[in-house]
## 1
Amino acid sequence: MHIGLVGLGKMGNNMRARLRDKGIEVTGYDANPAVSDVATLADLAAGLPGPRIVWVMVPAGDITAGVIEELSKELSEGDLVIDGGNSKFTSDFANEKLLGDKGIKYIDAGVSGGVWGKENGYGLMVGGSAENVALAQPIFDALRPEGPREEGFVHAGDTGAGHYAKMVHNGIEYAIMQAYGEGYELLEARSDLIKDVPGTFKAWQRGTVVRSWLLELMVLALESDPKLAEISGYVEDSGEGRWTLEEAINHAVPMPTISASIFARFVSRQGEGSPTMKAVAALRNQFGGHAVKKA
């Protein structure tokens, strides 16, 4: 199998490497010529065997829309486009119509795994027709973690379902990170009693009900900077938490925990930030390579 991959940033570059390691030929295109395999998007499309499959892995919003529009001009009937970025699920409906009018197929894929995905594999949530998903299944199987398919991949539903599932996933992620951050601050507040905060988090990694990959990343962050003294408590949000709340309001689903975690991020940008938000910032940096502000 030979596919095109547009966007060779932190995740896209690692995805290209993992796919190649799994025996899938990849031609990558990026605006940065230093990492790109071809000079233009047109060159990428022209060099792929038909029916062509192109995975788009660029920032959500106008950039993704622009790439999709350009691909609609370069590809032809029977080809397939996969949007693997963090797009809002409502954009999938517009993308599918734009491409569908020219007979080009479309899949939306929510992707989790961050900068660790090359080694560990990526959690995949996919939306689209069963026929289209079947065409791309070898790609998904190469990207997902080792083990049973259903533990790292789901065909969540029709077009938009993949990005919707990823949106909810990220909302949950916000709340879990906030809880770890608040726990960290309380432990630090009782330094007269708790003498080893990093060790306490590390001890939770086996046998406890709060163990998780995020907990492992929290331990990594604390082992490198036990007091989180090197970073600010300023925490950005990528947008998916906001979209989760919009959907919660639209469907009258109470989300007090997730909403509180998002508002806490807003508060963090109004001052120096608390130890809790330092921990959240450190976690975002650990799993996604998201930038942090230095203290």
## 2
Amino acid sequence: MGFFDAILGRSKPKRANLDDLFALPPAALTLQAAADFVPTGVGAVVFRQVEGSAFDSAERESVALISSDPAASVRQTNDGFGYTWQVVSDADANVVNLVTNLHAVNAALVNQGFDTMLLCSTVYFAHPDGRRLALVYQYKRGTFYPFAPTGPKQRDNALEIQVRGILSGELPFEDDMSRWSPLWDAPGMDENPRALES
């Protein structure tokens, strides 16, 4: 932080650390024990797509890494807002494997110099009563926040605050709730979780 930033009370946001994602598996256990939200085995990496062979190579590298895992699958979709979602699924709903594969996508893009294109990573959860939840990692802030949609352009703010309270000791949460951006119609959010199948 610079001298003038200190005088004016400005602070630099925490920079992303891709290894923060590895805090998600133990946090998932805590969330399941405290609130009955079960990992669905689905998550996504969201990035702004750019043209060029280096970017195409980074995308191919990440897909190849994930495809080498027999329990994992990956699909890519564009959201109409200029962002691409690489949606990763783990057939066993294993959060450790899912996070490892999401990290591989991130690392492939960062290694090719496209870290500024990364927007966020998500890991999805479901409750037996049908509610859905995402834990979202923001790269530019180096923080997490919960997102709990309840319908078209509606979210459960009380649940989001509850989840922050449950996991505040395990994940670095975003303090500024105005930055808890909604991810309406997030690809993969509504996929049926294997863990809840009877």
## 3
Amino acid sequence: MTAPTDRAPTDRYRPCLRPEVLVSDALLLGPRTVHLVKNPRSGKSYEVGVKEHFLMARMDGTRALDELGEQYAAEYGKRLGDANWQQLLAMLGTRGLLADGPAAPPAEEPPEPPRTLLRGTLPLVADADATAERLHRAVGFLLAAPFMVPLLLLITAMEVVAVARLGELVDGAVALFTNPVLLAGAAALLWFSTALHELAHGVVARRYGGQVAEIGLRWRLPVVIMYCTVDNYQYLHTRRDRIATAVAGAVMNLAVLLPFCAAWLFLPVDDATGDALAGLLLLGSAQALAMLVPLPPLDGYKIVAQLYGATALAASSREYVRLAVRRDPAAKAYPRRARTAYLTYTLGSFLVLAGILAAVVALLVHLLAT
């Protein structure tokens, strides 16, 4: 039955969303709660409110409009009129979201950004999603609890040792920077770690049903890094899946350091090698932990946004704090959950930045005192 989007809807029409349509969990956005909806065919994403989502979540082809209307009235105490249905079905139909409506045109390939010697991107594989799937088939078993729990315990132990012997690590890093050969080797290992960091995002995303859009190289000379784009990160099934995908990169960075930490602790090495290992442990840990700072576009920001259940968390926080400082009446329109999220995120971000600044100052004091 064709979707009645150009006339008053019939009560017995049974709307059904296309099975490929992606819908996110409820997310804070400013003072509102929204759901993100994506049409994979067109590549376009939309925001819908809680009430629209209530109806869309029940549009599986088994419920007629009158049944949906009764459920809506029971939930919100108000019946929808023909004009309301007409507006909703027209919106869904024109965006190509209804199974029996016209399909949205396929997404156009975005123009390739200009590539110059100084900056650009270069895809490394023709089918990034298939590459991530092959990698997952090869190493995905390592993501099971019998492997991950011991790994996380070892990483935690390594970082505890690093903090307890921080002075040695700093001295080793200083010595490392005076040895060009060992410094070049450490830099190569850290770059390799960043490549594995990106691939880890893709492999974990594939484990939870994500799609990897692109794997490649990005350069802003003198920096050259790998990147891995997860196309539907916001639509992974659960918040835990999304957090696991975001944290996977930092875990990989730290896992790479484990054999070098073991060599530093337990093998009889000469002073130069010991300094190099200590310096590598410090620089690698700093690299991994820096990615967990809760500021966009870092992985830590994505993790915190998921913990708060928010989208555009930083922008929403800035806007709310601006309104609150100015005592703007609009600030009172924010629900309590939103106010708490935006204030605690802002305060937490300042504390993290203050901690980083204090660590830098302490490092400089240590270096000047030696």
## 4
Amino acid sequence: MKQFRSAMFFFMAAVMLLVGQSAMAAENPRDMLQKAGNALLDRLVKDKAAYKRDPQVLYDIVEKNIEPYVDFEGFAKGVMGQYYRQASDAQRAQFTTTFRKSLIRTYANGMAAYDNQKIVFKPYAPGDDPKKAQVDMDIMTASNGAVPVTYQLVLNAKDEWKVKNVIINGMNLGLTFRNQFASTVESSRGNLDKAIVDFIPAAEAVKKGQ
């Protein structure tokens, strides 16, 4: 459980680095993430006293900056897995909304623990598919050393790179959440409406269980 909580912090920190500016397709996604991340981290340091006094300040920062740069619909579709095809348009929309809110709360809770960890981006190498990208980085910590983080991004119709999944220290968050949702559907005896309402990504469950 302790290891999972640590992994979730790095997930939150990694995704938060995506905020800042939108990127044109011609821009190297690594450079885009690095510039955006530096700008955000500067703000987190500057506003730390304010959000320590009032957590809502941090939630507002997260919601404003995260939403435009994460492919929540694609992320949610991957988490629903095989059940996405079975779901109605209304169920898909409800799941995406619930999943988005849960992750935003999780990111905000995780970033409250940010303490000037050093971020090291690896050299970027384009893949075979020009509409997909992978950016690797390490989060340097005093207790755990270098924690590897991989962003999986997609290029949308507006030529904007958006994150669709994150892998931290070998833990694929999209796959982890997909397995959790499948378990929720099973425990709901196949009732998709109930599963959507009851589903809580593990990061939120861990937070509530502390």
